[in-house]
Amino acid sequence: MERLGTGIGWRPEIADAVERMPGIDWVEAVAENVCPGHLPDSLRRLRERGVTVVPHGVSLGLGGADRPDAGRLTALAERVQALGSPLVTEHIAFVRAGGSLTASPHLEAGHLLPVPRTRDALDVLCENVRIAQDSLPVPLAVENIAALICWPGEEMTEGQFLYDLADRTGVRLLIDVANLHTNHVNRGEDPAKALAELPLEAIAYVHVAGGFARDGVWHDSHAHPVPRPVLDILTDLASRVSPPGVLLERDENFPGPAELEGELTSIRRALEAGAVERVKAEFRSTLGWATRRAQAGPAERAAGDVLGGRPETERHARTPVRAATDRQDEPRAVLMEGTGRPDEVRGVGGEVFGAVPQGDETGAAEATRGAFGLPHQAGDDGARQRLGLAQAALLSALVAGTPVPEGFDRVRVGVQARALAAKRADVVAKVAPELPVILGDEYRTAFLGYAQAQPMTAGYRRDALTFAEHLLSAGRPGDAQARRELRAWWLERSGPKPRSRRPAHRLARATRRVLSRR
């Protein structure tokens, strides 16, 4: 794997600062925000200087029930080629649900949502990753995500899920240590245990970011300084393996260059502390091996029976949790940690199917019951439909106000629903900056009220138009001049082609009119 070094997420708001920042070996750009035919001048200059640029996708939805969209894969491949990137990254998440697979309305989350750590979800994810790998011109790495909510009855830990994914597909891993911290706070998951279970040799690079606590949960905001617990997890990771690259993410509330450089310095120090611990551990391991070998008899040394040979310092020991069979087309029980035998198999509904004795056809049949309590059907389409129904039910509860599916924490689902609506309002304000100008202080309240009744179905630009239609049909806003401006804005963008090519001038005029009314 190519050594990337220390990097920072490239964003237009900090482009100039990133160009001048010392010690930046590479940058990562959100793939969907890059136009292959019109690269930002800043990215072009960085590339000319030899700085690696990695596109980071957010919209494939590899963890969703549907197969990856061919058009999205083609667009991602075009960005890889335009940037001359050595790899491309995406997320282990679902971002949409519903549609023909489930005969239900198509819904967009506008956010990365966690997949259940079940056999069904893993089977679907593995096929989706293989489809993506076949369509992309460079290696793919996928990122673990932060989660506010837990799926009921999960069958694997995060480390086991990622290990099996990498083992079955050969995909690289992008490990976000901030997301491990988020899942520690929100889901009670031990970051050290997750790191111990990961296939460290599959790591492509590492993300580091900040967040904040609210409503009793940790929000992975990418808009706050990196906290000490996240740096401690980075040190733990670096004590186990030397990551090929580490990158600081910041998406909102951008501080000055000095503060960003200070965070990068803290990241480097955390890596150095981990490297020191790694060297110490390697020395102790080598010394212990040498001592035991010296104490062994000649026959043992000749046979190579002492520790199975010299220790491999870059190799980690996988937690002993494996499938009962390596064949993907056969039923699999789970070997529980430390037992070496099949034990309980739980569905997402929480039901226990019990151990599967050899030769017990009844037990084996029960073990093949799929996730979500539905019978396990042969073939991938059965897994896709079960996963699709479960994801559609959850997403509908989050964005359309339908009942929360059984087994989920209703309070946490409510927190996630509010977070999704708030992010949706923020992104629409960026996509259509005229709307907050025209509506003024009324914008956010009006949008959140609209979002409660109108799920997003076709992306943020369409969402902005639908929001304007919603207000106009209700005779809003109350100010007549603002209503005329909103109607003109909507007509211009909903027609077959724009009436003007000077949006910046229109925005400036609208801003002056709004300020003159205050």
Automatic annotation (TrEMBL):
It comes from the Bacteria. InterPro entries: MbnB/TglH/ChrH, SCO6045-like_C, Xyl_isomerase-like_sf. GO terms for molecular function: endonuclease activity. Residues 294-326, 495-518 are annotated as: Disordered. Pfam families: MbnB_TglH_ChrH (PF05114), SCO6045_C (PF26136). Residues 496-518 have a biased composition (Basic residues). SUPFAM superfamilies: Xylose isomerase-like. Keywords: Endonuclease, Hydrolase, Nuclease. The keyword Hydrolase applies. This is Endonuclease.
